[in-house]
Amino acid sequence: MNNAVAGFSKLSKKEKINWIANTYFLSPEEALNIIRNYTNSDEKLQQLHDEFIENTITNLYIPLGVAPNFLINGQYKTIPMAIEESSVVAAASKSAKYWSTRGGFKATVIDTEKIGQVHFTFNGDAAKLHSFFDQIKPKFFSDTQSITKNMQQRGGGILDIKLKDKRSLLENYYQLHATFETKDSMGANFINSCLEQFATTLKDEFQDSDLFSEDETLKVVMSILSNYVPNCIVRAEVSCPIEDLAEKHITNPQEFAERFLQAVQIAEVEPFRAVTHNKGIMNGVDAVILATGNDFRAVEAGVHAYASKNGQYASLSHAKIENGIFTFWLELPLALGTVGGLTSLHPLVKLCFDILEKPSAKELMQIVAVAGLAQNFAALRSLTTTGIQEGHMKMHLNNIINQFEATEDERRLIKSHFKKNAVSHSAVVEFIETIRK
Ligand code: MEV
């Protein structure tokens, strides 16, 4: 089927929806119903969502849950999490409660530097380019004053601009490598606006300079922030005497601590395991990033680059046992905002910020890192004790029950049966079929 369409973006929302329903569905009315069911009846609210992106037809919901009892630097927090994967919120809550009686989570922001680059080519004398750069460097700051004024008032701005010679990587390739402090905003717009002005200044000053010959040319390729922020780092940690690790499922805390440590060490040296290990961390991280309207693609890209910073993809978390003390921690690069963007537009995001008691960007970095560490702890605890499937299958059971639209009576029967029997998709389906006969 050839379903190309001309001028789609010019159609009204209704026309777009009708085109989708009529083009892809044998029963367009059914499709229209689903789309309608997920469209907010509050027209103003729906319009707000419609305008976040282009060609909106409806909304895709994912659940927003909360994980309470997170003791972070001595203060209790309830963490909102937007995620579709069963057992993530339950695992976070379980970890939170567990560590709340063992000293809680400690989180520290190590640095908050953001990065942006103007990529350009220059085919002339490198020494001349360097002295030209030194000459015009103040101009980059003065030409961006209208952009940086407000940020400077908030204590942020451009930290530094360096000229980098990258010719060992690519012919004639240079960069303006700039660093920024963006306080409570993620800073993408601010950084990109500064960079585009740097590019203009660079080109204009080059044109006006009499340092260069006719044959020497400078061409800007692009100006863009980097989502790799290895100097925008937060650390989260838990620690307690080994014997305090004991609880219902941890009857031998020394053995548990040692096995846990081994599990972390495996993720430190084995990329196949490291990816899954870090995925578990990102279950917690992404859920909070989404709930707080931050850019999860940016965070994902930056975090995984950071996981490879030593040349091989490795675990983001680490553990040690020293003098009878078990310590588990991670460091994450997180460029987050608590002002600007969706944070002030999306009513649910605003609600999540209220639940978090209006954190600063630094506090949000700490909360996100803690959610990641808690998630990682929960996963490793299950993996090194009962195995992951026990908890997963309990949650999975609910999904299967919902899928089969079980009645209240059927639910009771199914849940009581699977308290004593192992959950698998086929076993549940078989049981449902039996009770329905
Ligand atoms: C599943 O979403 C996450 C885990 O695979 C993480 C891990 O293996 O550490 C359980």
TrEMBL record:
Its EC number is 1.1.1.88. InterPro entries: HMG_CoA_Rdtase, HMG_CoA_Rdtase_bac-typ, HMG_CoA_Rdtase_cat_sf, HMG_CoA_Rdtase_CS, HMG_CoA_Rdtase_NAD(P)-bd_sf, HMG_CoA_Rdtase_sub-bd_dom_sf. GO terms for molecular function: hydroxymethylglutaryl-CoA reductase (NADH) activity; hydroxymethylglutaryl-CoA reductase (NADPH) activity. Pfam families: HMG-CoA_red. One of its GO terms (biological process) is coenzyme A metabolic process. Keywords: NAD, Oxidoreductase. This is 3-hydroxy-3-methylglutaryl coenzyme A reductase.
